């Protein structure tokens, strides 16, 4: 499952630099997460770092984008093999 940022986002700027896959960027009104790049920090950390630093708890799992740990790890390998 990828993560998503809800309308409760206050644009505090703390989540974007924490994302190891550069999946978070400034959207039209609030930050957004690119589901093609979001691995929920699998391959990097035990827990999603954006969720850990968000002061308003506005980064839930996206129920429309369910992925297994194996799928997230495969996505991690695909992302990082391109940058190597």
Automatic annotation (TrEMBL):
Q: Tell me yes or no: is 4Fe-4S among this UniProt entry's keywords.
A: yes
Enumerate the spans annotated as 4Fe-4S ferredoxin-type domain.
Answer: 1-29, 31-64
Question: Which keywords are on file for this protein?
Answer: 4Fe-4S, Iron, Iron-sulfur, Metal-binding
- Tell me the superkingdom of the source: Bacteria
Q: Which PROSITE patterns match?
A: 4FE4S_FER_1, 4FE4S_FER_2
Alphabetical list of NCBIfam families matching this protein: di_4Fe-4S_YfhL
Q: What is this protein called?
A: YfhL family 4Fe-4S dicluster ferredoxin
The organism's taxonomy opens as: Bacteria, Pseudomonadati, Pseudomonadota, Betaproteobacteria, Neisseriales
